[in-house]
Amino acid sequence: MSIPLPTFHVGTLYSNEEIYSSLGVGNAGGIRSKAGANGSTQRLVIMTSLPDAKLLAENPYHDRIEGDVLVYTGAGKVGDQSLVGANARIPRQVNERFPIWCFQLQTSRRNKSSGPKRWMFLGLLQFLRAYSESQIDSAGGSRLAHVFELRVLNRFSEVAVELDSATMATLFEQDSVETTVEDNDREVDLVEPVSSLSPDDAAKLEEIRRELLRQDPRQFETTISALLVQTGFHDVEVTRYSQDGGIDVNARPGPSVWPMRHLLLQVQAKRWLHTVGRREVAELRGSILPHAVGCIVTTSHFSKAAIIESSTAGKVPIALVNGHELAGLIRSAGLPV
Length: 337
What we know:
Blueprint: E1 7-9, E2 13-15, H1 16-23, E3 31-35, E4 41-49, H2 53-58, E5 64-66, E6 69-73, H3 86-89, H4 93-96, E7 100-105, E8 117-136, E9 142-153, E10 158-160, H5 164-173, H6 183-186, E11 188-189, H7 199-214, H8 217-230, E12 234-238, E13 249-252, E14 265-270, H9 278-287, E15 293-298, E16 302-303, H10 304-310, E17 318-321, H11 323-333
Parallel strand pairs: 4-7, 14-15, 15-17
Antiparallel strand pairs: 1-10, 2-8, 3-4, 5-6, 6-9, 7-8, 8-9, 11-16, 12-13, 13-14
């Protein structure tokens, strides 16, 4: 049996036994907890895995880290999920401020050469938002899945087990870490297929969105440019990758909208699982050229704060297209994905 470890180092591999024996949590499950006084939560541990290209192709909803945000799907692979049990504990961090530890599986259990130390410590997590969305489950059916978004806080290279609550408090208070989240930036605007759609049509739109999530970011930009061409835009150009200044596609309206035919449209394409927030909308507004119009197209959703920011009086408006709206446009245009 492993001797409990006093400290965990970010980027270091640990065994499952070292994790549960040191942190006082269960030895199985994706969300593990240690109860405090009066049944409160003393700490949570989230166990996720590193998806390879094959796994992402098979399951594009798989947990992934995008930038500094972990997108984590709740417990349960088939059927509707609900915010109960272990899933319900994560959002309580907003009020209770308990630490959430994160470990990511690096190699498969079938890989005997890697030994028992296969879990990398990524750091502590800050809860950002949670919501339920339509997904295609592992059995091929439509289901409601609960999705969590958490910011990875790895400012400290190591975390002492006995000081994890104090470390979490310090991270929340550090000016250099963006820990303040507006209430309406936690709320996600889920504009999903309208109720007038049949279940089959709604499932077809989600299947298109799932195919878009399988694409890499550059493929997604190409898809958006093809959609613009297909729907009548001219002079469509995908910008140079990684040197685009935040702009992924430039285009101009076609002759059918002749009063605006010289207007420049600048599009930011985000093949994301996590929500586009207010900050991203404001940043795009600062990137577009004078007299151009901006648009963010994503495979995910927008927070309510992002939607408010996009149409705030006195600011250049930014058009927003979420994943389900995008799927509908692609289907209407007859564009293959």
